[in-house]
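[Solved] Which block belongs to which protein?

Original post:
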Amino acid sequence: VQLVESGGGWVQPGGALKLACAASGLTFSNYAMSWLRQAPGKERDVVAQITMSGNMTRYAGSVKGRFTISRDNAKNMVFLQMNSLTIEDTAVYYCNAKGGYGTSYYGMDYWGEGTLVTVSP
């Protein structure tokens, strides 16, 4: 199984980035997907989550209204559109796949290696 994140980089405050995570080696539509981030010296926190079908999403309070998670099950990809970025959004962003409840993949847990997002003037 591989999860490969892309789209990170440097952006000025107020700017936007779109992260992508390409999944391979798993039955993608049977996995709930999440984006998490870890800022320097801090714990890894959940940013956004999306169900297997994509019909439900959940966001951390700090990003609600600014970030949008989406997925394309035909292409085995999950995305994170990040708007109105602030310095506090600077972190390494990780893609996570968790086997969906009620599937034979429940309990499986996979991680990407992360992509760095730097927000600075």
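(Second protein starts here: sequence line, then its structure tokens.)
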Amino acid sequence: EVQLVESGGGMVQPGGSLRLSCAASGFTFSTKDMTWVRLPPGKGPEWVSTINTGGDSTYYANSVKGRFTISRDNAKNTLYLQMDSLRPVDTALYFCATGGSYSYTKGSWGQGTQVTVSS
């Protein structure tokens, strides 16, 4: 059974940083592209970032490019999202999902971790 467990969310002031983690189990993590998706309050899901299996190709939404960094540790079966220079508009429930930027909607998702950016 595929399991994805996100952690690391919380409340932070504008300009602050958070590092999200996604612990994966139940599948061969190193063979899957992985994606972060977020659900802002009152809005639909928004693709944030994707990383390929080897971690050497990364892709970002324009809204987070230059501020967020996706990475993975295949030895630890863990996906990360380093979020810097956080803004109130980054407030959302953040999910990790299996699959790339075009396939994550049909992949497995975790339960999400809440990120709130507020002064």
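Accepted answer:
You had them paired correctly. Confirming on the second one: The beta strands are 3-7, 10-12, 18-25, 34-39, 46-51, 58-60, 68-73, 78-83, 92-98, 113-117.
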